[in-house]
Amino acid sequence: MEPKIALQLWSIKEDCEKDFRNALREVKKAGYAGVEFAGYHGLSATEVRDLLNELDLAVAASHVPYEKLVDDFDATVAFEKAIGNTRIVIPYATFPDKKGWEDFAATLKTLLPTLQAEGFTVYYHNHGHEFTSISDFDAVAYLATALPGLKLEVDVYWLQYAEQNVDAWLEAQKAAVGLLHIKEMQAEPKESTEIGKGILPIVEYVQKAKTFELPWLIVEQEAFQALTPMEAMRANYQALHKIIEECR
Fold first, then answer.
1. Is 26 helix (H, G, I), strand (E, B) or coil?
2. CB–CB of 198/187 below 8 Å?
3. Sign of CA dihedral 155, 157, 161, 163
4. pLDDT in tens, 38-78
5. Ranges under pLDDT 70 in the chain
6. Contact 123/153 with Cβ under 8 angstroms?
7. What is the DSSP letter of 121?
8. I need a labelling partner for 144 at 20 to 30 A (CA). Which of 37, 44, 136, 228 fits?
9. 179 near 186, Cβ under 8 Å?
10. Which residues contact 180 (CB under 8 A, 6 or more apart)?
11. Per-residue b/e over 167-203, b at no fewer than 16 CB within 10 Å?
């Protein structure tokens, strides 16, 4: 199975804020097959769906804050269904101790079956703090073990940033890994950059995604050096597309 390429729209957030419709048109022109949402910039579900249909862009997933799922469940679910999304990604959580993560898992345990009954797969997206803020505790692995129905959207940049053995960690959590965020890292300063300009073994991650039969590779970039976000978005597609072709 060859994964398709999507863009996490946070990568071009200023362009989305300025003109969301035009930003998505540029994403399609660049070659992306889909997008991962991080907000809808005032558009209704109908407007989002019509724009996606017009551009022939798929919804790879949507980042939906945990609080929205808890506090505004019905409206959130209705919106995601209306735009054709089936993957809800909780983009962030943090707690000062293990008890906080245990309570979070307990709440998710009641929420997951309800979302699954509505046709959604639910994911958790990691950063770096889940591996480092509590001594000898991997919060992401804990969630995957405590909640068999939960999938993981693994950000390889943050795994490396937290000084994890990325290959070994992915293998250990293989059953839960459902999506990969492909984000490149430059050595100094340690921040994201365009694919192929950094130090991460992106080819190995693509090969892993193919072995795991993942449906999407989701590009994200959060820091920019020589290129604008829009220029970087285009360069990232070209670089990742080339790697996927070479891994055939």
1. helix
2. yes
3. positive
4. 999 999 999 999 999 999 999 999 999 999 999 999 999 99
5. none
6. yes
7. E
8. 37
9. no
10. 3, 153, 154, 156, 205, 208, 209, 214, 216, 217, 218
11. eebbeebeebbbbbbbbbbbeeeebbbbbbbbebebe
User: Is residue 152 within a helix (H) or strand (E), and if so which, with residue range?
Assistant: strand 151-155
pTM over 0.90? The answer is yes
Token pair for 23: 């930003």
- Tell me the sheet residues that pair with 151: 123
43 by DSSP, 3-state: which? coil
Beta strands at 121-125 and 58-63: parallel, antiparallel or unpaired: unpaired
**Coil, strand, or helix at residue 154?**
strand
Within its chain, how far is the Cα of 26 from the centroid? 20
Question: Hey, what are 140's tokens?
Answer: 């992401």
- Confidence (pLDDT) at 4: 98
Tokens coding 16: 């989305």
Q: How many CB atoms lie within 10 A of CB 132?
A: 15
Q: Residue 14 has which token pair?
A: 């200023």
